[in-house]
Every structure is written in C-alpha cells, then in structure tokens.
Design brief:
Blueprint: E1 7-10, H1 14-25, E2 30-33, E3 41-42, E4 45-46, H2 50-56, E5 59-62, H3 67-74, H4 80-83, E6 89-92, H5 98-110, E7 114-117, E8 120-121, H6 124-128, E9 132-137, H7 140-153, E10 154-161, H8 165-193, H9 198-205, H10 213-224, H11 233-249, H12 255-270, H13 278-291
Parallel strand pairs: 1-2, 1-5, 5-6, 6-7, 9-10
Antiparallel strand pairs: 3-4, 8-9
Helix pairs in contact: 8-11, 8-12, 8-13, 11-12, 12-13
Length: 293
Amino acid sequence: MSAHPSIGFIGFGAMAQRMGANLREAGYPVRAYAEHQQDGERHGTPMEPLATLLPQAEVVIVSLPNDAILEQVLLGADGVLARLESGRLLINTSTNSPALSLRLEAAGRARGIAVVEAPVSGSTPEAEQAQLVVLAGGEPEAVERARPILETLGKTVHHVGPTGQGAAIKLAINGLMGAGLAALAEALAYATRAGLDAEVLFEVFGDLAVLSPHHQRKLAALREGDFAPQFPAALMHKDMGLLLAELNATFQGAPTLAAAAQQLALGAELHPDADYVITADVLLEEAEDAATR
C-alpha cells in the first residue's frame, strides 16, 4: 500500500509523460488516460479508459492542449468533474484562459471537488528533470493539499493568487518568451540580409548576455537544425492568441506582443508540430534567399 495518493493523468503528452515518470519515481501510483491509447503503457505508465481510471484516482492531473478540449473532457453531464467522487482533488496543469479556470473551479466546488490550476513554466527538458516552475492558483487550502505533488514536479511552486491568476501569469510568461524569440528571429534575419556569415552570427549571438538561457537554447537548436517539439509552434500560437484576447478584454494596447504573435503565426501555419523556434528558421531562409539575389 502506497503512502501517497493514487494519481490519474488525463491527457498524457510529452510534458505529462515526464511529470508522471517523476511522480512514479517518488512513489506515487500513477495511471493515465489518453483518447487514442487506453491500454498498454506509455513512458512506463499504465494506460486505462476513464471508466476504470476515475474511480481509482484520489488526485486527477489534467494536461490538455486547449480550452475547447478541456471543456469537452471536464465539464458537462458526462464530464470528469461530474463523474469524480466528492472530496477528490483535480490539478489542472494546462495552459488555458483565466475564465475557463474560474468555470472549472466553480464546477468542482458544486461537486465538493477541490480544483487547483497549476500551469507550469518550462519545456520537456525541465519536465524531465523536475525543474519546472509551477504557477498555482486557487484557494490556499486546496493549493497546500496539492503542494507535495507539485513540489515533486518542479523546482519551485508559487501560489500566485486566487483561481485565474495562475492562468494569467502563465500567458504573460509565454508572451515574453514568444516576443523574445520573434525579436531574435528578426535580428538574425536582418544580419543575414546585411551579409554576415551564418556561423559568425551563431557564434556571436551565442556569446551574448542579452539572451536568456531559454533563448540561448533555442539559438543552439536553430544552429543544429533541431526542431523537435519541446514547445510546438501550434501551442505557442494558441497561447499568444489567448494572451491577445485577454489584452483586448482589458483594453490594454500591446503592439509588441501583437507583432510577435503575427510572426509566430507564420511558423505555426507552416510547421505546426515543430518547435516554435521554427519561425526563426523560416525568416532566416527568406533572408538567405534575399542575400543571394
């Protein structure tokens, strides 16, 4: 008998697989559900249909790609929140709109289920090493109940405020990340059009303090032509759209973020499943073509 509560993952993509592995290593019993795999194993975790996973799970961790899928899976008469027993805990690690976080908490409260939003900052390398930054929002009692699990997943757990504020700060962080990548891509494209050698560019930019460690990692991936999706372009595009919608709702002008979203949409349209650094590759290819004309 485990001393830890049993955990059921709903959605078991690249990030969730790594989180599940860290929880298993810490002694948590972990099972998972994914729409396209309901038996066997994935990344060492048993896969099950919801009908058998939900009755066993004392804690449900959700990792789904967008608001529409979250609503479909969690809400409604046949949704997960309607099928969970009272007293359970649901932790939502997805990146979604603040409004949806509030709806999920309200639906959980009506059923006696504690709901904590806990989006994470970090990509698959941080998830693998349990070095995520967890951005928890919700009632203090619920967040403290979730904290031992969240501390297993990340290097720090920040209780940023009530429900909705975890989603908001995650969108702000991803906006900063996306705008930084868009600026890097445009700077590299300009220097390429000006005739600088690509290897010189990568060597010099790789030596700069002005690039964050995250963007240094993206620069290295770009140099190697490695577009394996640590953070897919389609998800970055989705997050920038959520952020712009929030900005419009608060009547805040954000021309820098709007321009960055437009640039990042290019990579998402052409290569949605590649890492979002693909946008820089697209701009560099255009610049190289222009420089040789």
